[in-house]
């Protein structure tokens, strides 16, 4: 590994430590004259995430590798369903492009993107994502899930490319609470306001 690669990884790890301590802002400010505004950075990252969304939903999963920095010698991928972290290209290629897929259909989406620069050419993004899938076979029930993702990107001539992709699942209690909240129909707030008016009218009649 070259000295440049070592220095870049040190910057990335330092940025992650600062993120946990709430110190990424000071690191970003050090490069303020050379780097885009936060809103511009988020827009640039969203362009890459929309590419990811399009590829997943096209069912051509092998193209996901197009979104990674192939000059990076040691990509990291933290999959929620695996005990081990996927490190390096041989393991990542096997995961992203298996010889045989058990998926009949897979749909992926994202929202609530936040991003910060860790260095002029390295960015970290955290966002929500959801997915729906069905396995191959008879009587397979469609399933869905959601959690957060943390990705680290390297700036390349053709856009931001991933070098780290990490699922960040909620705790069991938080996930269970969010499941209950997600089951509420979108029009409940409007219904609630009408219900309050009806209850107030009833109380007025009974007083």
CATH fold-level assignment: Nuclear Transport Factor 2, Chain: A
Order of helices and strands: HHHEEHEEEEHH
Overall geometric form: extended
Rg (CA only): 22 Å
Strand order of the largest sheet: 2-1-6-5-4-3
Secondary-structure class: alpha+beta
Tell me the quaternary state: single chain
As a percent range, the share of helical residues equals 40-55%
Secondary structure tally, helices:
6
Poorly predicted runs of 5 or more residues: 1-6, 18-34
Mean pLDDT: 82
Question: Could you please describe the fold and organization of this structure?
Answer:
The protein has one domain: Nuclear Transport Factor 2, Chain: A. A hairpin with a 2-residue loop joins strand 3 and strand 4 (about 120-135). The longest helix is centred in the first third of the chain and has 21 residues, at about 40-60. The chain has helices at about 5-20, 25-30, 40-60, 90-95, 170-180, 190-205; strands at about 75-80, 85, 105-120, 120-135, 145-155, 160-170. It contains six helices and six strands; from the N terminus they run H-H-H-E-E-H-E-E-E-E-H-H. A six-stranded mixed sheet has the order 2-1-6-5-4-3, with helices on both faces. It is of the alpha+beta class and about 210 residues long.
